[in-house]
């Protein structure tokens, strides 16, 4: 069987990190490690965000990933040289941000954690993979999922944020951040979790120290832009966007100028307390009553659950809460989403039209 050409495979490509490296040469990069709360100068860029055969040994998969990265690099260079946000650039960045969101080690570990949490049950006879094996399975599944659902972000609007302050954008080992201002500031009943297809979805992706791609649900938010460009002159807006990198990174923040390390350290310290202490919350419920009307379950500590009892397991990934939002990202006068009144929650019309949302009876509702 043919093998991948490269043993050392990057889950954040070098083409993404290059604008943040020393003099943009792609050789050395400054980083801040959130675990040790320590800045490291001029670390080798080639060693960052990579694992041996992270995507496995399939050469076709490797080539497909390299193709996405190549188009992304050209798009970023086009914008850096003053090029317009034409339709080709829009599509490339749209595909890349979703691809990057799914592909990192942090994403694979989160999926693996969810997988193990669902199978590690009292008295269960499910075969339990090791965590490393679960990560590899999750990585392959993520790439297959991307191929099947890449158009799920096509309905999101896009703008390029140009940084006109002296506070540069930073990036990280988990740079494509999915968040949702609607979820945090106008939570639905029950505070359901949000995902890619949820109404109010936002993606943030730093491109260079002076530019960032932002994707947003146009039925919920409004951004004043000129030809999809937004010039930001408030330090607080740049800090709010950077905050998502500090909150969501697995371990490392990458920044351009070593002279800015103190500001990076302060921002890291401010975000540290808001990073989730555990990756997920698992709730167990066991059957308590059964009759003609149905079954009733009650929540119990996992240590109290006896073997053989019918149970439900609910696993929720813990996501950090931002402290603020950029001032130019505003709610529309009448923000809306689509709902059929079930636990599926609010979704976007584009996801319904593309067939990414199951169920019937969806109607537009104001939020």
Mean pLDDT: 84
Coarse shape: globular
Q: Supply the number of structural domains.
A: 2
Kindly state the percentage of residues in helix.
Answer: 25-40%
- Determine the number of helices (DSSP H or I, runs of at least 4 residues): 9
Radius of gyration: 22 Å
Structural class: alpha+beta
Q: Major β-sheet, in short? A: 5 strands, mixed
| Amount of beta strand | 15-25%
- How many DSSP-defined strands? 18
Elements, N to C (H/E):
EHEEEHHHHEEEHEEEEHEHEEEEEHE
Strand order of the largest sheet: 7-8-9-5-11
Give the gist of this structure.
31% of the residues lie in helices and 24% in strands. It has nine helices and 18 strands. The chain has helices spanning 14-17, 59-80, 87-103, 105-119, 131-149, 181-185, 235-248, 261-272, 349-353, and strands at 8-10, 28-33, 38-44, 50-52, 157-163, 171-172, 177-179, 202-208, 211-216, 221-222, 229-232, 252-255, 280-291, 294-299, 311-317, 330-331, 336-339, 363-366.
Blueprint of the fold:
Layout: E1 8-10, H1 14-17, E2 28-33, E3 38-44, E4 50-52, H2 59-80, H3 87-103, H4 105-119, H5 131-149, E5 157-163, E6 171-172, E7 177-179, H6 181-185, E8 202-208, E9 211-216, E10 221-222, E11 229-232, H7 235-248, E12 252-255, H8 261-272, E13 280-291, E14 294-299, E15 311-317, E16 330-331, E17 336-339, H9 349-353, E18 363-366
Q: Could you describe the 3D structure shown?
A:
The chain has nine helices and 18 strands. With 367 residues, the protein is an alpha+beta fold. It folds into two domains: 26-279 and 318-366, no CATH class; 282-315, no CATH class. Helix 3 (87-103) runs antiparallel to helix 5 (131-149) and helix 7 (235-248) crosses helix 8. Residues 1-6 have low confidence and may be disordered.
């Amino acid at each position: 069987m043919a093998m991948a050409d490269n043993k050392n495979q990057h889950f954040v490509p070098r083409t993404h990190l290059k604008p943040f490296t020393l003099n943009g040469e792609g050789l050395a990069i400054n980083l801040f490690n959130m675990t040790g709360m320590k800045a490291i100068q001029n670390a080798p860029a080639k060693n960052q965000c990579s694992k041996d055969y992270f995507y496995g040994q399939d050469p076709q998969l490797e080539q497909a990933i390299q193709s996405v990265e190549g188009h992304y690099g050209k798009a970023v260079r086009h914008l850096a040289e003053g090029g317009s946000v034409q339709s080709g650039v829009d599509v490339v960045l749209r595909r890349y941000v979703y691809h990057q969101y799914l592909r990192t080690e942090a994403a694979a570990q989160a999926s693996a954690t969810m997988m193990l949490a669902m199978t590690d049950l009292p008295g269960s006879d499910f075969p339990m993979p090791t965590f490393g094996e679960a990560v590899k399975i999750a990585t392959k599944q993520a790439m297959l999922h991307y191929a099947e659902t890449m158009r799920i972000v096509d309905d999101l609007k896009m703008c390029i944020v140009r940084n006109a302050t002296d506070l540069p954008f930073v990036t990280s080992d988990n740079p494509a951040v999915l968040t949702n201002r609607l979820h945090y500031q106008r939570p639905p009943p029950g505070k359901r979790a949000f995902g890619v297809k949820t109404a109010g979805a936002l993606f943030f992706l730093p491109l260079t120290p002076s530019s960032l791609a932002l994707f947003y649900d146009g039925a919920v938010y409004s951004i004043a832009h000129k030809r999809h460009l937004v010039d930001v002159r408030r330090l607080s807006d740049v800090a709010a966007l950077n905050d998502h990198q500090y909150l969501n990174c697995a371990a490392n923040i990458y920044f351009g100028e070593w002279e800015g390390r103190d500001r990076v350290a302060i921002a890291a310290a401010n975000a540290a307390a808001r990073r989730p202490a555990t990756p997920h919350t698992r709730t167990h419920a066991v059957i308590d009553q059964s009759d003609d009307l149905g079954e009733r379950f009650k929540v119990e500590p996992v240590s109290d659950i006896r073997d053989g009892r019918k149970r439900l397991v609910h696993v929720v990934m813990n996501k950090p809460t931002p402290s603020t939002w950029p001032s130019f990202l505003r709610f529309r006068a009448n923000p809306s989403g689509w709902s059929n009144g079930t636990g599926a929650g609010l979704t976007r019309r584009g996801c319904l039209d593309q067939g990414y949302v199951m169920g019937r009876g969806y109607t537009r509702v104001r939020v």
